[in-house]
TrEMBL record:
<dbReference type="InterPro" id="IPR003954">
    <property type="entry name" value="RRM_euk-type"/>
</dbReference>
<dbReference type="InterPro" id="IPR000504">
    <property type="entry name" value="RRM_dom"/>
</dbReference>
<dbReference type="GO" id="GO:0003723">
    <property type="term" value="F:RNA binding"/>
</dbReference>
<dbReference type="InterPro" id="IPR052462">
    <property type="entry name" value="SLIRP/GR-RBP-like"/>
</dbReference>
<dbReference type="Pfam" id="PF00076">
    <property type="entry name" value="RRM_1"/>
</dbReference>
<protein>
    <submittedName>
        <fullName>RNA recognition motif domain eukaryote</fullName>
    </submittedName>
</protein>
<keyword id="KW-0694">RNA-binding</keyword>
<feature type="domain" description="RRM">
    <location>
        <begin position="26"/>
        <end position="104"/>
    </location>
</feature>
Length: 113
């Protein structure tokens, strides 16, 4: 699993191959969202690829407005890979969205107990 950290994805690597290389992942990052896109809209667009466990559009704490990105968690890796392959660089509410496998959080306190 740690070896997957050193493998870079290139444009010719298929999503299913990339999934195999990097290990288990059923959570997608969705960037480039319209600031008007909400969780029901995002869920509606992605649920055709498989069962969704959670959809989250990230919002500013003060204003409550979308920051333009979110996450979609599927119940299976296959559904996530299918959604990635189909939805990446597609139009959603007038914006080209970018879909990638979500990366683990890295932060100041991640390795502290």
């Amino acid at each position: 699993m740690f070896s997957s950290l050193f493998i870079r994805r290139n444009s010719i690597t298929s999503p299913l191959r990339y999934l195999t290389i990097r290990g288990s992942c059923s959570k997608l990052f969705v960037g480039g969202l319209s600031y008007d896109t909400n969780e029901p809209v995002l869920k509606n667009e992605f649920e055709k690829y498989g069962e969704i466990i959670e959809v989250k559009v990230i919002c500013d704490h003060k204003s409550g407005k979308s920051k333009g990105y979110g996450f979609v968690l599927f119940d299976s890796e296959e559904a996530a890979a299918s959604a990635l392959a189909s939805m990446n660089n597609q139009l959603l509410e007038g914006r080209n969205i970018r879909v990638e496998f979500a990366q683990p959080k890295s932060g100041l306190y991640q390795n502290q107990k």
